[in-house]
């Protein structure tokens, strides 16, 4: 029997089982009753309970991670370059790149780890690794020492960045994930704002310890404590966590019943081949490349870029990075809320990427107007940050299973970070303040990302329409077809992924 025939037979068997089970439940429940109806008040109380613990802890994780990752840009203005020798521009670019090397290599394994062990333990392990490495940077005395620390920061964050959206999928519905990710990613915007404020304050500390070393200590040590808190207090999975009651566990399982979506918290190895054979996987990566080029440019060089707008003070340049990040935080929450409410992703990705492209166009086309160029940084930071939760949730929403989402998010993150490496080399100080190469590359790939996102939205809408027609025809004819059963929750075979009967894409 071929693989396709076997899969078809499995679908039909599951369909017959689901129909029989549904009939039995109707008899048990009695006429007019539905066992899947959830008390709205109990549901609201449960969501509030989850939101009060899961979202703040994971948001603090991202704030911590972004501070520990992004403080390299602030430390540059505080004197980190003094321990580098030779071509300092090249060495600083290598320091930036070191983070992304381990981040790229270990992203897929890091995501899978959260499916093999308890996800809270996997996240805590990653947080402990990056926080210790970030703190250790305060003691670095050479180029090699800084590079090693950055490699370990990337290793720790590889098991974290895309793993949190996967973790949310264990607790929340598909139309609830983006706004939660927006709070989580929004913490990165706040980290940019706080990082600028902290660096501004540190620049006025007079000590025998270099200011950049103090910065790494202030931002690294609290992250070590946070890793311990995550290990003990972040709920693991709905099946295992003692944070919820048995009644609440039943409500979660009922809420997560979604046609064609498998929420099984195990890793199905068929996801590896399926994800890499799916063309949309690579289109997601193309969008994420443009997004990460802008994000890497902002994270590594925003203070340096702003300093060329007419302010001669390093401290003032640090302070001026705060408003763009603050606006990006509000924009991230707003875009994700609307995306969840409308159950649409693509249109928001397109709009935000085009806003970022306009920002880079202004930076290129208005080289001598500081006010206009500063306004452009707001558009750039808004586009870079606000699109992260949208793309993470979109890639996960269209995967069809927890295993496929783990592989797809890990691969998308890995490929996207390749352009974060590119960003480290396209803003040499010799090309400032115009940086035509850096701004031009960002502009071009922002437009490419917007066009690709528009095509993805069109493709998913067309595919949904095809499935509607096929399943309607099968239902009308009473056919026992694998495309006719609206699987939900644990009834879904884990190896069908986005090809499961009843599954629909978010457009």
TrEMBL record:
GO MF annotations in UniProt: transmembrane transporter activity
Pfam family, one: MFS_1
Membrane topology: Multi-pass membrane protein
Keyword field: Membrane, Transmembrane, Transmembrane helix, Transport
Domain Major facilitator superfamily (MFS) profile residue range list: 54-467
InterPro entries: MFS, MFS_dom, MFS_trans_sf
Main localisation: membrane
Subcellular location: Membrane
Transmembrane feature ranges: 46-67, 90-110, 122-140, 152-171, 183-205, 211-234, 282-302, 322-339, 346-366, 372-394, 406-427, 439-461
GO cellular component entries: membrane
PANTHER family the record matches: PERMEASE-RELATED, TRANSPORTER, PUTATIVE (AFU_ORTHOLOGUE AFUA_6G08340)-RELATED
Annotated protein name in UniProt: Purtative transporter
Organism: Vanrija pseudolonga
Lineage, opening ranks: Eukaryota, Fungi, Dikarya, Basidiomycota, Agaricomycotina
Name of the gene: SPBC1683.12_1
């Amino acid at each position: 029997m071929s693989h396709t025939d076997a899969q078809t037979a499995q679908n039909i068997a599951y369909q017959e089982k689901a129909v029989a089970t549904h009939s039995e439940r109707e008899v048990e429940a009695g006429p007019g009753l539905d066992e899947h109806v959830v008390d709205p008040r109990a549901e609201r109380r449960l969501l509030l309970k989850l939101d009060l613990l899961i979202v703040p802890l994971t948001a603090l994780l991202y704030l911590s991670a972004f501070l520990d990752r992004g403080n390299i840009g602030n430390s540059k203005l505080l004197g980190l370059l003094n321990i580098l020798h030779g071509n300092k521009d090249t060495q600083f670019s290598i320091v930036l790149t070191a983070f992304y090397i381990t981040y790229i290599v270990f992203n897929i394994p890091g995501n899978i780890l959260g499916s093999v062990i308890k996800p809270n333990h996997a996240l805590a392990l990653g947080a402990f690794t990056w926080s210790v490495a970030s703190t250790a940077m305060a003691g670095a005395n050479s180029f090699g020492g800084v590079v090693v620390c950055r490699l370990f920061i990337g290793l720790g964050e590889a098991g974290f960045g895309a793993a949190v959206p996967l973790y949310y999928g264990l607790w929340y519905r598909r139309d609830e994930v983006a706004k939660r990710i927006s709070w989580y990613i929004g913490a990165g915007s706040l980290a940019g704002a706080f990082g600028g404020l902290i660096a501004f304050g540190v620049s006025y500390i007079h000590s025998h310890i270099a200011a950049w070393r103090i910065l790494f200590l202030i931002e690294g040590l609290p992250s070590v404590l946070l890793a311990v808190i995550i290990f003990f207090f972040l709920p693991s999975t709905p099946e295992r966590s003692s944070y919820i009651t048995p009644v609440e566990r039943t409500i979660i399982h009922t809420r997560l019943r979604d046609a064609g979506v498998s929420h099984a918290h195990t890793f199905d190895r068929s996801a590896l081949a399926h994800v890499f054979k799916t063309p949309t996987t690579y289109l997601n990566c193309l969008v994420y490349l443009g997004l990460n080029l802008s994000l890497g440019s902002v994270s590594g060089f925003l203070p340096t870029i702003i300093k060329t707008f007419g302010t001669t003070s390093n401290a003032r340049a640090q302070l001026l990075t705060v408003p763009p990040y603050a606006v990006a935080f509000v924009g991230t929450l707003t875009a994700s809320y609307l995306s969840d409410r409308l159950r649409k992703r693509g249109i928001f990705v397109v709009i935000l990427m085009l806003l970022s492209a306009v920002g880079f166009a202004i930076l290129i086309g208005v080289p001598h107007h500081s006010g206009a160029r500063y306004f452009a940084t707001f558009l750039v930071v808004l586009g870079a940050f606000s699109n992260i939760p949208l793309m993470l949730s979109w890639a996960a929403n269209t995967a069809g299973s927890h295993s496929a989402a783990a592989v797809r998010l890990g691969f998308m993150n890995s490929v996207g970070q390749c352009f974060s490496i590119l960003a480290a080399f396209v803003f040499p100080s010799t090309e400032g303040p115009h940086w035509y190469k850096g701004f031009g590359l960002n502009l071009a790939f922002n437009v490419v990302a917007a066009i690709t996102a528009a095509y993805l939205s069109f493709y998913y809408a067309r595919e949904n329409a095809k499935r509607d027609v096929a399943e309607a025809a099968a239902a009308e004819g009473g056919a026992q077809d694998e495309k006719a059963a609206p699987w939900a929750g644990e009834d879904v075979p884990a190896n069908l992924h986005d090809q499961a009967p009843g599954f629909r894409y978010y457009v």
